[in-house]
Amino acid sequence: MNESVVADRIGASHVGASSFPRVRLDVLRVGHCRHPECMAIRGGAWRVVDFPNLVGLIRHPAAGALLFDTGYAEHFVRATDRFPERLYRWTTPVVLPTEECLQAQLARRGIAMHEVRTVFASHLHGDHIAGLRDLPNAEVWCGDDALRLLRDGSRIGLLRRAYLPTLLPDDFERRYRRIEDAPSRALPARWSALGAGRELIGDGSLWAVPLPGHARGHYGLLLRHDDDREWLLVGDAVWRQSEIREHRAPAWPTRWLIDDAAAHRDTRARLHRVFADAQRAGDDGIALLPSHCPHSYDALPASMREAVGAAHSARAA
Ligand SMILES: [Zn+2]
After folding, report:
1. Residue of higher predicted confidence among 275 and 43
2. From ligand 1's centre to the CA of 18, what distance in Å?
């Protein structure tokens, strides 16, 4: 049975799918880090691998171009030029080739940076918001707790937790949209193990899903892609797909960043339940995408990646 037939069958049998409008999702690799695999993946090898910094480009018929996070940008390099911030860059050596820059990738799809109308920030770690200053017309959705931490924290205290407040644009207060101000509603049925979500733009197509633990005020974004599959962009709630599928704990070096260990475990357990329930039901109509998982990126349908991303993966393999 081909993929679209399976998706149609599942979509038809799934109550509520008709009220979950489709949008188009592209996944962009906006820079990457190079680490020994075992630094981020429990049981991984010592060989150095690329960990992508993934950004979701969502095209909505009425709301235009939206982004899930921004990935890396030159601003990250500038923000980590001096000590003590330079330590952040040493810990996560960033690679940002010209063809992976957000501007270049959007341009290849006919979108200018000033045309991006909305950024949904999963959380405010530097590697997820470094490009905000390059998107002058975008309103920025983020969690209240995430922003409060940035406003109240000390320079060193924030740096130790991978925050770089200078990455926030000067007019951020004007552009800021509080996720908690969006209406709270039950998530589409397949995702009920994750509780309620925030319905962001009023037509049921984009849902902020609380996935606490990794960072203060951390959210995922749920949508229904053109292929009828329901995609949850999980941000950094987990680092690797296997943490969800096999309910595995993350590698120790990534654990020091975790804001709330109990909440992190609970989030991982609930994501696993969603995955396991779908698997038991033979339902392949869902997908979960962590922001830095190289295997998830390589497994994406070619239609959701661009040619340059595919070429990189082919070279790495
Ligand atoms: Zn993070």
Report:
1. 275
2. 33
State pLDDT tens for residues 260-272. 999 999 999 999 9
Better pLDDT: 86 or 263: 263
Least confident of 155-164, 195-204, 221-230, 276-285: 155-164
Alpha-carbon span 301 to 297, nearest angstrom: 9
pLDDT reported for residue 162? 84
- CA dist 105 and 87 (Å) reads 29
CA distance 262 to 251: 16
Domain 3-316 CATH assignment equals 1.10.10.10? no
Cα angle for residues 111, 116, 121 (degrees, 5° grid): 130
CA of 214 to the centre of ligand 1 (A): 7
C-alpha 292 to ligand 1 mean position (Å): 9
Ordered by start, the domain boundaries in the chain are 3-316
| Site of tokens 């695999």 | 37
Instruction: Output the CA 211–ligand 1 centroid distance in Å.
Output: 12
For the entire predicted model, the pTM comes to 0.88
Q: Which of 218, 23, 215 is nearest to 120 (CA)?
A: 218
Separation of CA 213 and ligand 1 centre (Å): 10
Q: 254: CA distance to ligand 1 center in Å? A: 9
How far, in Å, from the CA of 294 to the mean position of ligand 1? 16
Residues 191-201 have a mean pLDDT of 96
Could you tell me the distance, in angstroms and rounded to a whole number, from the CA of residue 212 to the centre of ligand 1? 11
Q: What are the angstrom distances between the C-alpha of 159 and each of 84, 86, 96? A: 8, 10, 21
